[in-house]
Amino acid sequence: MSVKDIVRASMYPIATGVLVILCWTAIVEIGLVPRAILPSPVEVGRAGLVELHSGRLGIHGAASINRLLSGYAIGAMIGVTLGLLLGGIRSVRAYCYFIVEVLRPIPPLGWIPLAIIWFGIGEPSKLFLIALTACFPILVATEKGVGQIPEPLVRAGRAMDLGPTALLVKVVLPNALPDITTGLRLGWTLAIAVLVGTEMIAAQSGIGFMIMDAMGVGNFALLVFGIILLGCFSIVTDAGLKYVFDQKLLRWHHNATKTFA
Known about the structure:
This protein is mainly alpha-helical. The chain has a single domain, classed as MetI-like (MetI-like fold), CATH 1.10.3720. It has eleven helices and no strands. Helix 5 packs across helix 6. It is globular and about 75 Å long. The two termini are 19 Å apart.
């Protein structure tokens, strides 16, 4: 995708954002919504600048990103590994698939009591919840990708005397990669959501803590700023992941799709 394409694709979201801000400003200035309930965009921006200049925003942001990256990395490694095992080994799927299906629908925040009992209220419990949240969508997507690999392709690899490791690297992973990357993106977005939940419940730093602290002191402008910041962070980082996956990992896949289309 060229720079011109990126700029053209960005015009519509930017125009929509500007329109939303204008409508938001008009609603507040006219008095349709009290400022005590919904601060104006100017007040929200000012609160964010105050937090930025004080250095608190950087501290909270760094704490959240550190938790997010650590928990997500753990969840991604476990999810991909288990997905490969469930999708590629029938005996593992027979014994473990039921357990995965039982645990998968449980809301991540429903694990909070057990996380606190097992790991306390410190960082390990937060990392556990983030890793657990990221793990399941990645696991399911990986298992689906491996399960859809054509059997003749696997047999062809074995006929070429590929060992288990070579078969995994040269046949299984390349063919399952489109599904794996989809799971990685979904796991990342869900991890951001549960990160905020864990920081709102038991933390002394992080964007979630900043939002709850702002609500406690009645700084609703900062509260709204924190919510918008999280949304923008999720959108930008997901777009970054999509670009990296499409341009670095899946370029061959897109080229093959175009060739055979």
